[in-house]
Amino acid sequence: LKPFWVKRLRQLLHPSPPSAIRTHQLTMAPKAKAPKAAAKKAEAPKVEEAPKVEEKKPEKRKAEEEKTEEAAAAEPPAKEAKFEPVTEKEMDAPADSRKALTGEISFHVPDTTLNVIPTMGGRVLASLSDGGCQYLIAGARANVGMKAGRYMFETRILEVLPLPDAGGFGRKGAPASRATVRVGFSTAGSPLVLGDSEEQVFFDTDGSFCVGKTRRPVCRKFFRDQTVGVLLNLDTKSENNNTISLFIDGVRACHPQALPEGLQGKMLFPHLAFRNVKVLTNWGPEPIKALPFKCRMLGTAADADAVKAKAPEGKDGKYEVVLPVGFPDEGTFEWLDSFLEQNPQYVELSDRKIIKWAASSGMFSGKGRGGSIDKPAFNYGMPGMDDNSIRIIIDSVAGLMPRNYVVMEVRQSLCEADRKEILKRFSAPCFKKVAHVVMGEPTADYKKVQHEKILKEKQAKSDAAWRAAKAEKRRKKETEKKAKQFAELRKKLEEEKKKKAEEARKKAEEAAAKKAAEAEKKKAEAEKKKDGEEKKEGEEKKEEEKKDEENKEDEKK
Questions:
Q1: What is the 3-class SS of 222-237, one letter each residue?
Q2: HSE (CB half, 13 Å, CA atoms) of 280?
Q3: Do residues 380 and 117 touch, judged by C-beta distance below 8 A?
Q4: Cβ neighbours of residue 152 under 8 Å, at least 6 residues apart?
Q5: β-strand partners of 151
Q6: Burial class (CB in 10 A: 0-12, 13-18, 19+), 73
Q7: Successive 10-residue mean pLDDT values, the chain, 557 residues
Q8: Within 13 Å and on the Cβ side, how many CA atoms surround 485?
C-alpha cells in the first residue's frame, strides 16, 4: 500500500471529530511545505503495518457501520442550513375550567402498521428490524384527535437500531434503510405511512415540512435524545390559527406552518411514522421540555376540543380472517379492491400489499422476469425482500395482532392443504375464519363498479391520446414555425452576405480604380518631369554651344 492510502485507511477506521480536524488544519496551514516532507518520511517506514490493520478490519468495520447507520439520527452534521430567527407570537394558555378529556391516549392496533411493537402502555413504539422489515416505514395514529383549541404532544428518539450490512447483495441504486422519524397529524382513515396522502401534514428528521408528497426544508434537523414537540393551533382567537409548529428541546425550530385548506375544519389525529428507531411519546400532563410560553398538552385537552376514536371491536368479540376463493385472472383482485373500499377496517395480506408498502417507504422494484398479480416478482436487490423473508415475518406477526384480515392467496386458497396451513396462523380464539367464494354471476353492484372502472380507464386512455395528439399538433406547429423562422433567418443571412460581398466588390473596384488613377498620375508626372529635364538639358547644350561659338569668335579676333 502507498503511504497515502495507509493514512486514509487509518482516518476511516479512527475518525477524528470535526473540531479536531479543523484545529489541526489551522495549525498546520502556515507550514504547509515542511510538514508534507516530514509526513512522507514518517509514513514511509509504516507501510509494513498495513496487513495488521487489515486483520482487524472486520471488527472495526462492524462498529463503524453501526456508527454510520446511527449517524443520521444520532449525531448532528458539521454544517447545516441557516434559518431566520422566529419572533414568538404565541401567548400563554389561559386557565380552562371546562371538562377535561377522560381516558388515556394510546394507539389502537388497527391504526398501526404490522411492524409496530408498542411497549410501556403504548408510550414507547419500536419497529421490527429483521427479515426485510428494516426497509419498511412503520406508522401509528393516536386514538384522540383535535377539532379546536391549541395543544401539543412530544416525541423523543430513544434508540437508533444498528442494521446488518447488506454484504454487497443490494443492486445499484437501492435505497439505504436509514433511520427516519416523521411526526405530525392526519385525518382518520388516511394511510398509516405518512407521506402517502394529502390528508397528512408532518415534519421529518431532515428538517422538512411535508404535506402529502410535497416537502420543503423549514428548520434544522433533529436527532436522538432530543425532545421534539409538535403544536397544532386550531384556536380561532389566536394569530397563528390553523398552523402547526415544531419545537426542538423547547426552542421553536421554524415559523408556524399553515395547514392546507383541505385539512382546515377537519379532526386531526397525532401521527408518527418511523423506521429503525425506538420513540417515546408524551401526551402530558407536563411537557418534557417547557416551551417559552405555557401550552397545554393534548392529554389535558378539554373534552369539547377533542374527539376520541372508539376502540374497534369484532363481531361478537371476534375478528374475521377472510379467505377469498376464486379462479386466477377472473376478477379476484378487482373484487378485493371493491371489498376493501366498502370495508376499510380489513387489512390485506398479500405480496401486492407488501410491494405497495415498500413503494411508500421509498423502494421500487426493478424490472424482473415472471410474476403475476397474485405472486409479483420481487427484484429490489436487498436481502430480506427478494428471498421472501419479509412475507414470512409478516405472516408470523399477523396472527398475534387482533384485527380483521383478508388473506389474498389465489392459488393457495384453491388447495385444501394450503388453506389449512394459512388458517393455522390464526388459531387464536379471537379470530373467526370465513371463506368467501368469488365465483359465478357477479352482483349488479359489482358489475356497476367494474363498468365505471372500465369506463374510467377508457376515458383516461382517451384523454391521454387526445393530449398526445394535441401535443403532437402543437409540436408540429412549433416545428413549422421554427422552420419558417430558420428559413427567414437563412434568407436574411444570405442577403446580408450578398450585400457584404457586393460592397466588398465595389470597394475593391474603387480601390483598384483609385490605384490605377494614382499610377497614371505618377506616370504622367514622371513623363512630364522627364520632358522638363530633357528640355533643360537641350537648353543647357545650346547655351554651351553658343558659348563655344563666342569663344571661337573671340579667339579669331
A1: CCCCCEEEEEEEECCC
A2: 14
A3: no
A4: 229, 230, 231, 232, 247, 287, 291, 295, 296, 297, 298
A5: 232
A6: buried
A7: 54 48 36 41 39 41 45 47 73 91 90 91 88 90 94 94 54 60 94 92 94 91 93 93 95 93 93 94 93 93 92 81 87 86 90 90 71 80 84 89 90 86 89 87 82 89 92 92 91 91 90 88 84 80 83 82
A8: 6
